[in-house]
Amino acid sequence: MSGPLRLVPPGPATSGPATSVPPPRLSGGRRRRPRWADDPIDELIADRGELIAEAVHPDEIAAVLEADGLTGDQAQERFGRRDTFELAAELYARVPRRHPGPPPRTDPWAARPGRFVFRGLVFALPGLGYALGAPFLSGPPDVLGLPAGSGALTASALVGWAWNQALAHRAYTRLASGGRAAAGRCLRLGAPLGALLACLAALLLPAPGAALAFAAGQSAYLAAATALLVLGRERLLPLALLPTAVGAGLSLAVELPSWVRVSALLATVGAVLAAAARVTVRAVDPEAAPGAVPPLTASLPYGLFGLGCAVLTTVAALGDMVRYGAGAALAGAVVIALTLSMGAAEWLLHRCRGLALAALAHSTGSAGLRLRAARVLGLCLTGYLAALTALVFATHALWPAASPGTAPPPLGAARLLAVLALGAVLWSGLLLQAFGSAWFPAAVCLTAAGAETAALALKISAPAVVQLAVCGAASAVLLAFATALLGRITTHR
Average of pLDDT values for 293-316? Predict the structure, then answer.
């Protein structure tokens, strides 16, 4: 931008002062500029062209002109316009719009995808424990026709999933307000309590002693892993899981003795408990300020969302066995694919938040922001579903080798679409939680879980068809809400 505004145009080509012969007036009071005079507006445009081009309204130009000292009388005498507003309107019309782009900025949500691939593996590796513990879960089917102990293990997993989702939210909140010491105090009490409740849930259903012992180990692992994840020490989990991973790998080649299987499982549980205890105790500092303590109800929707997701995933895995009996195939490959996909889901949640901020920076109105936000949401969801599709095909292809003697149910169009619909529910619910909206996804997921459970109990259609209908509707509702939420400027503050 050039120098200050010039209010005095060049003098006329004739002799004498410029004001000796007043220019004639137009009808309506506007003065007519002599033909021999240079157009002073051209010089004004040359002086203030960049500012005029960037203005979004003529009044913005008028405000700058008045701030530079141009009065209404000067606008009439110097430029032949009634006032500064008429002059600004002409400047706005004559200069093409040229809005500047936003300055370069650092994306606060940028993250390397490799970290989230690692987290996906960390989430999925505990499933190898079921391969080692399968021989101990033998016996007559339970009341639902499931393998012995499945009911107790499922009840324990549902309670543990819901509790640890709520605990993780509360611990992260304490971490933000009071640091690692506050989070450590929260986990030191909440993690053992959650493990105890999950064990009690398993005891409510009839199961052999081996299944109850496995449920206790599962509950302890979930609680300890939650503590390590919140405190940023998830790299210790693969080390703790190494005995189970090695044992599961050996079981594919040779028949392992029972004591080897038990030793590998106990080594994993013992290692993860020791690591969590050490990290949690070291995090607690008696002299640190406690920080703000949020009410317990603040974490309730996160626990309810976890419960709804756990029920939906359980129905996806065991639905055929409950519907058709123990002879039906276990859809374990679906659960493994969903678990592995959580790494990609977390990374795409970060990308969605970063791209949403970029969309806000490039939008000049609410309509443009809504359109850009919808594009960002569609792009990130499509990326997640593509990753989930690849994982579903991969786990179905590898399942017979990973679990000899069993075969997953056929992967037809209905089952594949049902898994993708469930993935869309999980991802969009997590996205809404990331933007601070927790109750709505919790209510939608619990409603969907109740609908699928009722349909399974009443034997309405095939479980995959029911899941496709229910999760398809739930994901549509969640995505519509997410699109509206991301289209608001206040959401991105």
Answer: 93
